[in-house]
Design a protein that fits this description.
single chain; about 575 residues; mainly alpha; three-stranded antiparallel beta sheet; two-stranded antiparallel ribbon
Length: about 575
């Protein structure tokens, strides 16, 4: 019988040649599917899996007739089981030991990895800006005032703070660039006037005069659609505290809903545009009030430990500087208004905020990895994103099997590598003691990633948690430089109001208008300043390339309004001739 069974197995297409050939074909299809991401390749692979399983099962059953194979299978299974157990025990022990040692070392230095310590302290409901009815509309669809998730979302709540300048259910106009001050350009109110006229003709979304007025007047009339909302927002902003009722206790903090950020940014853009138009119409007090309201919106999310919140504040800082810049360019602000604006700008410290936020993001990542260790079936969602998948749905059987096969120690190792990378290359990019950002430190971090300094099994989850952390420092450095240059420009304008001209050097400003003159956050040296022959001045930072380009800016390829932050200088300069003067 043994001879009869052996003969067919020695044929050309029987085991082992046929089996290995089939396995090779399957591996080839798998490589093609992963490499090309073509639906056709995946379909062929899925179709071939069924016959592969059948052939493998038939060959396995036939081999069971051999006593030697049964003996080999038994002892091989025992040996494999022992190796698997040893592997998991060793990897789990190594992971736990590595994380505990790393944590003890850094906690002895004063570092903290506890997510709970990153959560903003509670505030009284009656003093909370975020709980007012107008602000509640920005998140009321998703969660209530106690932070409880609404499932399904409450569609009866309408977000009144999404002030779409393109009109309801329409995108914003393609020409929109909410902040052109960094290019030395004013907002094009004529383009906005034409835009609102077109929108009014199409669907009567914005009020517009039947007889065109000045661009500023028509823009203000169009924006009057949102006057009631902005008035309510202004009254709500008079409350001294702000803490949005976010669900900080979620097992995975990356699932916390931050829908309120888009609403606040939308309001800031509209307020900035309205303030620019008000300045053109000589309504300086109203423009100043709108500028102050934007500062208040920025302060409302200042304590949130999320990178998204800091990104929102950065964007709001950029748009608030547009009316500040235009008012300075045309000499419209009074000394008292300039003093108030300087006070608000002095509160913006993106170096400190960056440091706090990165600690918060690190703690979020560590908590998220800990959650995935307890719920390994959710690991797939870190690497495979789908718009069609219900975020509340439990993981499938395949996800649970694959996730459960990951050693627990690998999760701990990912925590070590995540914290190690953030503490080595992300947080040190902002020097708190000198109030500077270091492009060099960020480049070291990118080089470490490119050089595969961290092994993949211990780095895959950590890398996905990092997201854009390593690339965010540049934008925050620009925000800090912009804020500091705005403060110096305000001091220069106050000097001009007093003396009738700008000073030759910045040093004289510290005698009356600035307790300490801000320095360039890139390199820590003084900002470059020079008087121009037309009576204006040029003030600039050396920028992310850390070299003086003489006050020259660089635009992105194929763009006339988008600044390329990696090259050239970051400038503050005005048009050659102001439109009006005091």
């Amino acid at each position: 019988m043994d001879v009869k069974l052996i003969k067919p197995l020695r044929k050309r297409w029987s085991w082992p040649f046929g089996l290995w050939l089939w396995i090779s074909v399957e591996l080839f299809l798998l490589c093609v599917a992963f490499g090309t991401q073509l639906d056709f390749a995946w379909n062929v692979l899925e179709i071939s899996l069924a016959p592969s399983a059948v052939i493998s099962l038939i060959l396995f059953i036939r081999l069971l007739f051999f006593r030697r194979f049964r003996r080999f299978l038994f002892w091989g299974s025992v040996g494999l089981a022992i190796l698997v157990v040893v592997f998991y025990v060793e990897e789990d022990w190594r992971g736990v030991h590595a994380w505990n040692s790393f944590r003890r070392e850094w906690e002895a230095k004063g570092e903290t990895f506890d997510w709970q310590k990153m959560i903003p302290p509670p505030v009284q409901d009656g003093q909370n800006f975020a709980l007012t009815p107008i602000v509640y509309s920005s998140y009321g669809q998703v969660f209530d005032r106690q932070g409880h998730l609404k499932n399904p979302p409450d569609t009866n709540v309408v977000d009144r703070l999404i002030l779409n300048l393109g009109g309801f259910n329409y995108p914003e106009p393609s020409f929109v660039e909410p902040a052109t001050w960094c290019l030395g350009m004013k907002i094009d109110l004529i383009a906005w006037q034409k835009h609102f006229q077109t929108q009014s003709d199409q669907a009567n979304r914005f009020p517009i005069s039947s007889i065109p007025e000045t661009p500023a007047q028509d823009v203000l009339l169009a924006l009057s659609r949102y006057n009631e909302t902005l008035d309510k927002l202004g009254r709500a902003a008079q409350l001294p505290e702000s803490r949005f009722p976010l669900d900080y206790d979620r097992a995975d903090p990356f699932e916390i809903d931050l829908s309120h950020l888009a609403s606040l940014e939308s309001c800031s853009k509209t307020l900035s545009l309205r303030a620019v138009a008000e300045l053109q119409e000589g309504r300086v007090i109203a423009a100043h009030s709108d500028v102050q309201l934007i500062f208040r919106l920025m302060a409302a999310i200042q304590k949130e430990p999320f990178l998204s919140s800091l990104f929102a504040r950065k964007g709001m800082a950029r748009v608030v500087l547009q009316p500040v810049w235009e008012g300075l360019a045309d000499h419209r602000w009074s000394d008292d208004q300039l003093a108030v604006q300087n006070e608000e700008l002095a509160k913006l410290n993106f170096v400190s905020d960056y440091n706090d936020t990165m600690h918060g993001e690190m703690a979020m990542g560590l908590r998220s990895i800990e959650y995935l260790r307890r719920e390994p079936g959710m690991v797939e969602r870190v690497f495979v994103f789908s718009f069609d998948r219900d975020p509340q749905a439990p993981p499938g059987l395949g996800s649970r099997v694959i996730g459960g096969a990951i050693p627990s120690g690998w999760f701990y190792q990912n925590q070590v590598d995540l914290a190690d990378f953030v503490l080595k290359y992300i947080i040190p990019a902002a020097d708190m003691s000198h109030a500077t950002f270091s492009p060099t430190v960020i480049s070291f971090g990118r080089n470490a990633i490119d050089a595969d300094a961290y092994p993949f099994p211990y780095w895959g989850l950590a890398r996905s948690m990092l997201g854009g952390l390593g690339y965010s420092a540049q934008g925050f450095a620009f925000a800090q430089a912009s804020t500091d240059m705005a403060r110096i420009a305000i001091a220069l304008e106050r000097y001009r109001l007093l003396h009738g001209f700008y000073p030759e050097k910045l040093d004289v400003l510290s005698q009356q208008f600035l307790a300490q003159i801000p320095h360039d956050p890139i390199g820590g040296q003084p900002f470059h300043y020079r008087l121009e022959t037309n009576g204006q001045f040029t003030l600039y930072s050396i920028g992310w390339n850390e070299k003086d380009d003489g006050g020259t800016i660089v635009l992105r390829k194929n763009s006339k309004t988008s600044l390329y932050l990696s090259e050239g200088d970051w400038i503050w300069r005005y048009p050659s001739t102001p439109e009006t003067g005091k």
